[in-house]
Amino acid sequence: MKQTKHLLLLLLAFILSVTETFAQAVGTDFTVGNIKYIVTAMDLTTHNNTAAVSYIGGTGAVTVPTSVVHPKNKETVYITESKEYTNCADGVTSITFSEGYTTMGKGCYAKSKNLTKVTFPKSFTTMNPGCFEANNKLTSFEVVSGNTKFSTNSDGWLLADGGTTLQAYPTGLSGDVTIPNTITKIAPTAFNVCASLGKVTIPASVTSIASGITTSFLAVGTYFEVDDSNPNYKSVDGVLFNKDVSELITFPKDYSGSLPSGKYTVPSTVKTIAGEAFSHTSTVLKAIDLSNTETISAQAFDYTSGLEKVTIGPKVNSIEDGAFLNCEKITEYIVDANNASYSSDEGIIYSKDKKTLYLCPIAKTGSYEIPEGTVTVKAKAFYSSKLSSIKFPSTLTAVEDQAFRFSSISNLDFGTNSNLSSIGSSAFGNTQLTGSLTLPASVANLGSGAFNYTKLKDVHIADGSKLEAITFQAFGNMPEL
């Protein structure tokens, strides 16, 4: 009996030990002082323990230390990076990263209200895109002497590659900026939502500027001026293009050029509107004519706050998913009658044969009945839509990912004799759907988070359903269910 009791106690001790070790495993959080960390490596044998910063709290000047002692196992843990999208408290005015810190994940330290300065150690080697977005008080970076990757200039800009790459421009600086001819490359998101920037002058030496989702110039400036001898880029009326003006890279956030009645007509040579090209553009831009444009990239127009009317020209043949996101004042899309790929109906963009619904203006309100014959609702077609009620046709077979996400719809009518077979991930996530919902028997595929974060009280699955599984969080985070 004593031996059995002893074995049980040993087993219990082992279970507690394993549980404690698991609690400190890779991916778990812990806090020391005002800084929160996440374990990235934990080896109690070799003591090769590392962690990433996941939140910086406190006020005033904050130093991220080289290492900390884990509060549970008392192991020394070395701080080597910041987890992507890490932020800091509003009261933090400066951050100093200590020796051993090497990597900053994408999207870190955005919209920090009082951050003025950031200091990097000589061990720092990697900054991912999207960091330090819209920090309106950030005026300087500093790099400890001896860093072989990064440096700063006398204006506090973060430079890389021996000073030839402009890695990050302090987003709190104001006024006009002239990029020196020592710079050959402007890194992705180097200018990341600068609220008070004026004219940007680009020299002939700059031969690499990122375009697209991680554009070098995200929501900045009043006017671009490119040296005429630059081999790769050109400015036309203050707008930034590639050299042959076939791609529109960036339209200035606070454009100071001429906009008759708030309308901008894209030059006839432009074939592509790059991602984020019109991101966060101020209310001065109210209408756009896409002229001979062929491709409108994803998020080309994102938070274009004043845009009300969009004219799709005859040559547009590719409108990528989410091309117009968070443009809350758009009331209609007008498609040229000679366009071979698209058409419009009540201001909504369809394919020419009306089988695919591509895009609904966010500002359109009330109820809408999708017409019979429509087969597919494309991804993000009604993203953030102000419509309150939707009725589907019997011909509809697919609602793609995030098609109605963040929309105001509170009532969804699948209609009679539904043939809907596929509902994409987050298709109706974060909407105002309420009351009861009966999922048609025809639905066979239900994406993850399809109805996540809605206010539905009852969900019924019709008799004879073809649905084989309820995917992850398909009906998650629904407190009224």
From TrEMBL:
Pfam families named among the record's database cross-references: LRR_5
Q: Which UniProt keywords apply?
A: Signal
Could you say which residues form the signal peptide? 1-25
The domain of life is: Bacteria
Q: Which PANTHER family match?
A: IG-LIKE DOMAIN-CONTAINING PROTEIN, SURFACE ANTIGEN
Query: Can you name this protein?
Result: Leucine rich repeat protein
